[in-house]
Amino acid sequence: MNKQTFMKELNHYLNGLPAEEKRDINQDFDEHFSAGAKEGKSEFDIAAGLGSPRQIGKEMRAAYQLETVDSDNSVSNVLRAVWAVIGLGFFNLVIVLGPVLALAGIGFAGWVVGVSFTATPLLVLVNALLFPATFIWFDVFFSLLLSGVGILIGIGMYYLTRLFIQGIIKYLHFNVNAVKGGVSHA
């Protein structure tokens, strides 16, 4: 494949990246072709040495999403990064998506328990208003106890969620480095 075809395919697989990011990547690959030409290599040899434009595009999109997550680790950015890393290959579908979904399910269950426990006094109040004959003071005190436990669970889930997001980001970085050709042991 010659330089023009390589760059055209690469740009196709860089869709979704900002124009400035695309420009920087194109400039880098132009430099690769220029340096290779100075060494006497043909465009076909240079393109073959660079690899598949499709795989390069996927890696660049994943790297960009990880950079975005590093600066702003909102849930939407983390999800975009997870999808970009999954796009690197079928192996990542199992290795990344499985653990992320399992841990997210556990986290969601923790939040549901925390919010449910916290809301129990409201449910006891509604029950007392709708069915006054079934009112028992024990229900009030027990619901207050559950509410306190729910608040503690909510605080714990807040910190666990932050830790979970940081762990996902580190895992995604590790995964992208492994896909790119090895993990540095520095």
Radius of gyration: 26 Å
Major pleated sheet: none
Number of helices: 8
Mean pLDDT: 85
Q: What is the element string, with H for helices and E for strands?
A: HHHHHHHH
Transmembrane segments: 81-101, 108-130, 136-160
Organism: Lentibacillus kimchii
Pfam family, one: HAAS
Protein name: DUF1700 domain-containing protein
Can you walk through the features of this model?
Keywords: Membrane, Transmembrane, Transmembrane helix. This is DUF1700 domain-containing protein. Pfam families: HAAS. The protein is rod-shaped, with a radius of gyration of 26 Å. The mean pLDDT is 85. The two termini are 36 Å apart. Helices cover 83% and strands 0% of the residues. The longest helix has 45 residues, at 137-181. The protein has two domains: 1-51, no CATH class; 73-181. With 186 residues, it is mostly helical. It contains eight helices and no strands. The protein has helices at residues 3-13, 19-38, 43-50, 53-71, 75-86, 90-118, 120-130, 137-181.
SSE blueprint:
Blueprint: H1 3-13, H2 19-38, H3 43-50, H4 53-71, H5 75-86, H6 90-118, H7 120-130, H8 137-181
Helix pairs in contact: 1-2, 1-4, 2-3, 4-5, 4-8, 5-6, 5-8, 6-8, 7-8
List keywords for this structure.
186 residues; mainly alpha
Characterize this entry briefly.
By secondary structure, the protein is an all-alpha fold. It has helices at residues 3-13, 19-38, 43-50, 53-71, 75-86, 90-118, 120-130, 137-181.
